[in-house]
Amino acid sequence: MSSNLCPCGSQQSYGSCCEPFLVNASVAPTAEALMRSRYVAYCKGNVNYLVDTRHPSKRQFDDRINLIRSVRSTVWEYLTVVRTQQGGKNHTNGYVEFMAVHSQPEWGQLHERSRFIKENNRWFYVDGEMLPPILPKRNQPCWCGSGKKFKHCHG
């Protein structure tokens, strides 16, 4: 297993964070853990994991081809979990609000409130509500991670 930091932003090693989920050695114990591991699957192009962790009722015949296009055309930079509601080990549903920043095809952010359900002790992504971008105040650091003030970057 790898000792590099996990792309999900947990500050843990990839090998002790999301990798066990992506290689089917274990299942995500919480909705947030599943959301973080799905982000990593997008980063690493693990389409099978993305399909397998989507709720069966939401799977479409063209999911794989659409996901392949998405992972090939998007470079994800970092993930920020904004808040979670339920989604713990003893819950059967939960929500995770997050912001994910991408640099390709151009700089942008995905701000979503994702819905998860747990069936047979396994969490699944159901769907998500797109939210407006999270914009800092003018003199705060830009959301893209450039280190510049927002007003001098994407503001």
Describe the structure concisely for a colleague.
It is built from four helices and four strands; from the N terminus they run H-H-H-H-E-E-E-E.
Q: Order of strands in the sheet with the most strands? A: 1-2-3-4
Order of helices and strands: HHHHEEEE
Number of strands: 4
**Proportion of helical residues:** 10-25%
Quaternary class: single chain
The major pleated sheet works out as: 4 strands, antiparallel
Helical segment tally? 4
CATH architecture: Roll
Strand coverage percent: 25-35%
Organism: Leptothoe kymatousa TAU-MAC 1615
Pfam family, one: SEC-C
Protein name: YchJ family protein
Structure description:
It contains 4 helices and 4 strands. With 155 residues, the chain is of the alpha+beta class. The protein has one domain (14-152): Nuclear Transport Factor 2, Chain: A (Roll). It has a 4-stranded antiparallel β-sheet. The protein starts with 18 loop residues before the first helix and ends in a 25-residue tail after the last strand. The model has no long low-confidence stretch (mean pLDDT 94).
